[in-house]
Amino acid sequence: MISNLYLIQGVFFQPQSGLGIGYKPGEGVVAVIQRAECYFLFSGILERDPENTLGEFRGSLQDRFGESRITKGVILDDEFRFTKQYTHRKDAVRYRFRKRSDGLWLGSYGGEVTGAGPSRCVLTPISAGFFDIPDPKTVAWVSPLPEV
After folding, report:
1. Would strands 66-75 and 105-111 be described as parallel, antiparallel, or unpaired?
2. Least crowded by CB within 10 Å, which of 68, 82, 113, 146?
3. What is the pLDDT of residues 80-128, one digit of tens each?
4. CA atoms within 13 A of residue 73's CA, in its CB half-sphere
């Protein structure tokens, strides 16, 4: 069953490069281009868009590159897709996933500026009450600090 509200946590992989310094026998110190496949974590929230008659989801994500808005989110039994747009940029990044039997969503992303790469995520259905402030009279509080 598809919920109306989800937490999303995931990772996307992107090649990165940088300029470094190396040593080459006979030449001495030289400039070196270093390449690595890096991973970047993201997390956020998705909600069914009340203004969308198709039942699409909207929300927000946060990752190393900033905050983004999620639109055109579709969650089916075995497929999940959405469009991400950073709040400080105009380009869009599209994500598409397929669900594995263990509940992990595997897929990829692509965008004109970002390029394309693999991604994976988990969706956790939650109720709207998840964000309610707990009543201190009804919650057994546990001290976050150990007693000395």
Report:
1. unpaired
2. 146
3. 999 999 999 999 999 999 999 999 999 999 999 999 999 999 999 999 8
4. 26
Q: Please compute the mean of the pLDDT values over residues 15-34 and round it to a whole number.
A: 86
pTM for this one?
Answer: 0.81
The whole-angstrom separation of Cα 17 and Cα 33 is 7
Which amino acid makes up residue 136?
A: P
Which residues, in sequence order, are bridge partners of residue 118?
A: 108
d(CA 79, CA 118): 15
Q: Give pLDDT tens digits for 41-64.
A: 999 999 998 888 888 999 999 999
115 CB-near residues (< 8 Å, 6+ apart): 14, 15
Q: Which domains does the chain have, with CATH numbers?
A: 5-131 (2.40.128)
**CA distance linking residue 72 with residue 1, whole number of Å:** 19
Which of 40, 44, 50 has its CA nearest to residue 7? 44
